[in-house]
Amino acid sequence: MMASSSVTHHLESEVPYDESKLNHEQDANENEPQPLARAETSQSNIGPPESLWHEIIFITIVCMAQFMTQAALGMGIVPAHIIGASFGTTDPGELSWFPAAYSLTVGTFILVSGRMGDMWGHRLMFVAGFLWFALWSLLAGFSVYSNRIFFDCCRAFQGIGPAMLLPNAVAIFGRTYPPGLRKAMAFSLFGATAPGGYIVGAAFSSIFAQLVWWPWGYWVLAIVCVAFAGLGYIIIPFLPHSKSEDDHLPVMVRLDVLGATAGVIGLVLINFAWNQAPLVGWSNPYVYVLLIIGFLFLFAFAFVERSAKCPLLPRSIFTGDLAWVLSCIAAGWSSMGIIVYYFYQFMLVIKGDTPLLATAKFSGAAISGAIASVTTGILLGYLPPSVIMFCSMSAYTVGLCLVATLPVDQIYWGQAFFASLITPWGMDMSFPSGTLLLSNAMPRKHQGLAASLVSTTVNYSISIGLGFAGTVESHVNDGGANTLKGYRGALYMGVGLAAGGLVISSCYMLVNWLKYRKEKGEKEKEQGASP
Q1: Which of 98, 282, 319, 465 places its Cα 20 to 30 Å from the Cα of 343?
Q2: Cα separation of 76 and 155, whole Å?
Q3: C-alpha separations of 114 from 109, 357, 360, 451 in Å
Q4: Hey, which bits of 175-334 come out as E strands?
């Protein structure tokens, strides 16, 4: 309640955007590391809703993109053993495909969806994303009459819906709010829905799986997605198309179809190889052949982008803070996928908990994540991104260490409870800070791209991280005889990824601090030399 009151107070009391005031603040702090909320940006072309209640409803509907994305992820992890049993499989490698197939397409198709939103309208893509999400959720439920392969395919196609939702939802915020506390809080609330969405999806899918029939979870998800599609069309205002010098070019050129095709194929093949390897082994020739072909397609993507008239990833955007932030996000969120997946495997398989009980043990993440997001929204106006990222990577590392060393006979209120509280601070500090940095740094016509970069990194990292962890698990579990040893090996892989992010963020902080000291010294020298 305290957090909700604080957010409402800030939304009510914030003064209108004052460009002269912003410029004055930037001039006064030109030699200091700049917090994300003060990053320079172009003016948004629509303002926030005039009514507070309308604004609350608007923010809620847009945030449902993140909420439902994470809910569907939870639906593939928590009841995985019950779903697998209906298909006659208990193989950990096959079960891991339930979340991995979904996250694979969420991360892979985001860039293309962001470009489509820039071209045809973010509201249109938002509504279409929910409708696509609903269709394949419906079919995923009916896959109970087919087989596991069809369910995996439905999960993969289901992930294209969130890929359409995420970049366009963030772009809607980016084009609605000018820089300032209001925009920072909107992005933070968007990130705050991630842990809550995951817990709600895990809880309801567990209820249906344990007490009714698991397909009902996916059918209800389809109904909810259709409802949000209708509400989005009604509540979200029409966003005028941003005029560009490229508007006269053919649609295929503006979509960068050649580059998009090469990029998507490359990302899919690399991810497929890493997630299939734990199931069939790296000794199987087609696994490493697909991996090599995937990298070749990525090289082709880079080559095509150099000469493309409308590249998906303009080279000019990869400068300074962006490379550091995206590297941290990749390391952190790949470790996040590992801790979430193997926390549940530990509770379900090693401890013998039911899916509902395991979800209850991780439910503290929803409350902790909400507090983390609101806190981050406030800190974004005062701290540089390097500090935010360092805190985020620290949370990931501590959370992974707690779960990786969790004793089997320890009570829940020991390491498991604190891990569920600490881990959300990693995701809810890294996502809004990275998104806000890119959104503020890019012009209006690239708001979809700004959102796409962070969302692509987040979701693709979740999927590829599970592939890394699964490979380690399959090599250290003594051929399946020592399940606990395999889980710990996978979790230590997550510790390594999180620690890598911590090292990168530490270097980022050091570079920023040295740059600040140098600029401050030069300014003092200039002031001393002047009469």
Answers
A1: 282
A2: 8
A3: 9, 38, 35, 7
A4: none
Average pLDDT taken over every residue of the chain = 83
Q: Tokens for 440?
A: 């503020």
3-state secondary structure 316-362: HHCCCHHHHHHHHHHHHHHHHHHHHHHHHHHHHHHCCCCHHHHHHHH
Whether the CB-CB separation of 322 and 440 falls below 8 Å is answered with: no
The Cα 451–Cα 66 span in angstroms is: 12
Please state, in angstroms and rounded to a whole number, the distance separating the CA atoms of residues 442 and 451: 10
Q: Is the pTM of this model over 0.85?
A: no
Q: Which two tokens stand for residue 203?
A: 């809880």
Q: Find all residues with CB under 8 Å of 491, minimum gap 6, and list them.
A: 338, 339, 342, 400, 403, 404, 469
Residue type, 461: S
> Pick from 251, 133, 246: which is nearest to 197 by CA?
133
Q: How far apart are CA 87 and CA 72, in angstroms?
A: 19
pLDDT value for 34: 42
CA angle 454, 460, 465 (to 5 degrees): 120
Number of other residues whose CB lies within 10 A of the CB of residue 516: 14
d(CA 393, CA 310): 34
Residues 6+ apart with CB under 8 A from 472: 489, 490, 492, 493
* Number of Cβ within a 10 Å radius of residue 531: 2
Tell me: pLDDT of 183 over 90: no
Q: Can you give the residue ranges of every domain in the chain?
A: 45-238+310-523, 256-309
Helix (H) or strand (E) holding 479, with range, is none
Q: Does residue 460 have a pLDDT over 90?
A: no
Give pLDDT tens digits for 348-359: 999 999 999 999
Residue with tokens 């079960």: 95
Residue carrying structure tokens 């039911």: 354
In the CATH hierarchy, which top-level class contains the domain 45-238+310-523?
A: mainly alpha
**Rounded distance between C-alpha atoms, residue 446 and residue 290, angstroms:** 33
479: left (phi over 0), alpha (psi -120 to 50) or beta: left
